[in-house]
Design brief:
Blueprint lengths: L5 E3 L9 E5 H10 L7 E5 L5 E9 L3 E11 L7 E5 L4 H13 L4 E6 L10 H14 L12 E2 H6 L6 E5 L20 H8 L4 E5 L7 H9 L3 E4 L8 H16 L4
Parallel strand pairs: 1-3, 6-7, 6-10, 7-8, 9-10, 9-11
Antiparallel strand pairs: 2-5, 3-4, 4-5
């Protein structure tokens, strides 16, 4: 990976143009990295690809950059969303960071019956997504949508997008985690059978989905229940596992 600083910016990017950075980004280049005039910087904005630039000048709170040339054209990520029940702070941060690294196009916190957390700071999570995109050579930053109830998400769902629902439970209410009857098929087999196309992965909270939520999910034609192995995974592990499986079978890893 290049040692040249790489930053996500909102400004339009075009060879020969100049842009000014302020605040944290200017501080990072001039105070943290201690760059001087002429130092190289790489920029992307999620629309115009990636550009080489150089630091032209700086002041106490600003940094002026001159764009040199486009080095990579814009690419579209796989049409994969991640929906997950919010966890406690550091674990939610982990899920967002890894989801960006694994190439999701959108991230949506979903509030379920057994959520550990009732509110989500999407502005903070968006900053984590930007940092992950900068570090992993992505040319876009997936948006972090506002948290919404599972009911409202399902009610407004477009049926052309498959929703892979990580269902770790069985149907026998008298046994731990529902016993062995009614278990979902392995995710790899389900994704391989359905092939590519718009998709989303839904990961529930630590306590799993409630019986009512599970019943509704399994009743919907666009939902595909999937299993993630013989062990009960922590929610953040389940998210990484499911994203990895989908990308390796139907995503851009091939």
């Amino acid at each position: 990976m290049s040692a040249t600083p790489r930053l996500f910016v909102d400004a339009d990017l075009e060879a020969g143009s100049d842009i000014q950075l302020e605040g944290d980004q200017a501080h990072y280049l001039t105070r943290v990295m201690r760059l001087g005039p002429g130092a190289p910087v790489r920029l992307f904005n999620g629309r115009d690809g990636e550009f080489d630039a150089k630091l032209a000048s700086s002041a106490k709170h600003t940094a002026n950059l001159s764009l040199i040339a486009q080095t990579r054209t814009q690419q579209t990520p796989p049409d994969l969303w991640l929906l997950f029940a919010p966890l406690k702070k550091t674990r939610t941060d982990f899920v967002v960071e890894k989801a960006v690294e694994l190439g999701v196009a959108e991230i949506l916190p979903v509030l379920t019956d057994r959520c550990e957390v009732g509110t989500v700071r999407t502005d903070r999570l968006q900053r984590i997504a930007i940092e992950a995109a900068e570090q992993t050579e992505r040319l876009d930053v997936p948006p972090i949508r506002e948290g919404a109830s599972l009911d409202s998400v399902l009610s407004g769902w477009q049926p052309t997008r498959t929703l892979y629902f990580a269902d770790e439970a069985g149907d026998d209410g008298e046994k731990p985690w529902g016993g062995e009857t009614g278990r979902a098929l392995p995710m790899a087999a389900v994704v391989a059978a359905r092939g590519s196309g718009p998709a989303a992965i839904l990961i529930g909270p630590e306590g799993g989905f409630s019986p009512a939520e599970r019943k509704r999910l399994r009743s919907l034609p666009f939902v595909a229940p999937v299993g993630l192995g013989p062990r009960i995974l922590r929610a953040e592990t389940a998210a990484v596992t499911a994203l990895t499986l989908w990308q390796s079978i139907a995503g851009d890893w091939n």
